[in-house]
Amino acid sequence: MTTFKAIRIDKGESGTTAAYVDFPEAELMEGDVTVRISHSTINYKDGLAITGKSPVVRRFPMIPGIDFAGVVESSSHAGFKPGDAVVLNGWGVGETHLGGLAQKARLKGDWLVPLPKGLSAAQAMAIGTAGYTAMLAVLALEGQGLSPAAGPVLVTGAAGGVGSVAIALLKHAGWHVIASTGRPEEEAYLRALGADEIIPRQELSAPGRPLGKERWAAAVDSVGSHTLANVLAQTRYNGAVAACGLAQGMDLPASVAPFILRGVSLLGIDSVMCPKPRRLAAWARLSVDLDAAKLASITQTVPFDQAIEAAHSILEGKIRGRVVVEIP
Predict the structure, then answer these.
(1) 260: Cα within 13 Å, side-chain hemisphere
(2) Tens place of pLDDT for every residue, the chain, 328 residues?
(3) Which candidate, 93, 116, 98, 50, places its Cα nearest to that of 290?
(4) 3-state SS track over the chain
(5) Does the bond joining 61 to the residue before it have cis omega, within 30 degrees of 0?
(6) What is the C-alpha separation between 218 and 139, in angstroms, rounded?
(7) Is the pTM of this model over 0.70?
(8) What residues pair up with 70 in beta bridges, in sequence order?
(9) Contacts of residue 286, Cβ cutoff 8 Å, sequence gap at least 6
(10) Domains in the chain and their CATH numbers?
């Protein structure tokens, strides 16, 4: 029986377990494209799936990994042929469909996008869902008519994957960037990415007032809960907040005051089921707007046999920026 290397998550009476296995190719799920994977990555969601700390996985057994880059091995899809370099983000891969922390994947060709010109597979995974989500957030703010002339922009969870890329993208676009982080030791790192100011996470993470002093015109929030509520309460008139994460929690203990008294907009960012035209637009901008040197500075690369360890580290707050996994 033909097999390939993969991380496999199984569920038993005592919970879920993740292990490196030889996975039977015959057990791959249905799809019209098979990809030989060269690189994947560890996102916060992958950390939740591998450690079992949140019910991210909804099918067992599961191969985790919501991102991958590789080369088409076989295809009956009209848009792809063997040898094409491709990227995958989202669509339930790694949750309901076998994912990218493996040597192979089979899936619908409609879920894939071509690897953008000017990016290597490793760079695409250094961007990954985190960076692609950050770009979607920037596009959403621009879609509201916001620009650097409106005032500063805040980025929460600044040392994480989404935050790191968002800072670099926003600075490239000319914004004055305020970075919120719970890791003061990362100030030099954040300033190198483009942060103009650093504020401690504690300023935003506790219960706050319905309305506060107007401090920023826009924000990218990957934290949720009290942090997002406070970000909204301190957003300037006619400003907007792009929300894309829940590191602090899924709740939103806020009031309607910012919306009805200051005309603030809350923009939801979904990277998983995002329509393909918007995906292509985001990746096209990333290939141009994201400085390769800055991308390299926020990226660490680990071999496949250290991916499970990295998943634990990302939940423990021990990782900044992005983690690329090299698939043997």
Answers:
(1) 5
(2) 799 999 999 999 889 999 999 999 999 999 999 999 999 999 989 999 999 998 899 999 999 999 999 999 999 999 999 999 999 999 999 999 999 999 999 999 999 999 999 999 999 999 999 999 999 999 999 999 999 999 999 999 999 999 999 999 999 999 999 999 999 999 999 999 999 999 999 999 999 999 999 999 999 999 999 999 999 999 999 999 999 999 899 999 999 999 999 999 999 999 999 999 999 999 999 999 999 999 999 999 999 999 999 999 999 988 888 999 999 9
(3) 116
(4) CCEEEEEEEEEECCEEEEEEEEEEHHHCCCCCEEEEEEEEECCHHHHHHHHCCCCCCCCCCECCCCEEEEEEEEECCCCCCCCCEEEEECCCECCCECCCCECEEEECHHHEEECCCCCCHHHHHHHHHHHHHHHHHHHHHHHCCCCHHHCCEEECCCCCHHHHHHHHHHHHCCCCEEEEECCHHHHHHHHHHCCCEEEECHHHHCCCCCCCCCCEEEEEECCEHHHHHHHHHCEEEEEEEEECCCCCECCCCCCCHHHHHCCCEEEECCCCCCCHHHHHHHHHHHHHHCCHHHHHHCEEEEEHHHHHHHHHHHHCCCCCCEEEEECC
(5) yes
(6) 12
(7) yes
(8) 37, 86
(9) 116, 119, 127, 131, 132, 135, 169
(10) 3-115+298-326 (3.90.180.10), 129-268 (3.40.50.720)
Two tokens, residue 2: 């033909």
What pLDDT digit, counting tens, does each position of 18-51 carry?
A: 999 999 999 999 999 999 999 999 998 999 999 9
Q: Which two tokens stand for residue 314?
A: 């990302």
Strand partners, 234: none
Given the structure tokens 């103009």, which residue do they identify?
196
